[in-house]
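Justification of computing resources. Each target in the renewal requires a structure prediction run like the one illustrated here; the chain below, 208 residues long, is used simply to show the kind of job we budget for.
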Amino acid sequence: MATGSRAYTPAEAAAISEIAVKSVQNAIDKRIIEAHFGRAGRELSDQDLLRLKLWYGLGSILSAERRKRLFDTIDQNPDADTVRADDYLIVDVARAREQLVARAEALREAEQKIEAVKGGGGEPVFKGTRVPVRMIAAMKQQGASSEEIIEGYPSVTARMVELAEIWAAAHPARGRPKKLSEQRLKAKSVKRLPLATAGSRKASGTAS
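Resulting structure tokens:
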């Protein structure tokens, strides 16, 4: 990868490669990638991230044995833009590297723009705002569009929404999710829904 090399935690590797953390841990346990132990525990390199992306990206096309042979070919030709996996398949390694570089840079950008709030339980926010990063990421994950989030929080930009997503994926919260009151936040609107419709009451036999 083109950026300066650094060590990644499994969660960071998952966020950058867009692979589930459990799959990253599984790849380490099965020695698909060789993680090293550092101060934060298991650590992965840029090359490990490339292997992860290709291993799971090609899983529906190539067998495990053929993917391992592909890695050997890449190791022998580290600067190659494309690598032939078989007679009919050419893998665009350069494109995979570009995608990883872009997301690694986004994670670094997020880490530079996010800080913990003093006196606010250490809840991470974007510098210059009081908007919790994990709340923005959760809203996006639950189906809110960037436009809807920005409309509700004018201090947030579309880029900040993107950075919130990758940062939250790379730094999963521990323990139970905090309530809004614990984050010193208030709901902007409340929608009340009936516990049961007339149809469901009839189905349960409570209606005459």
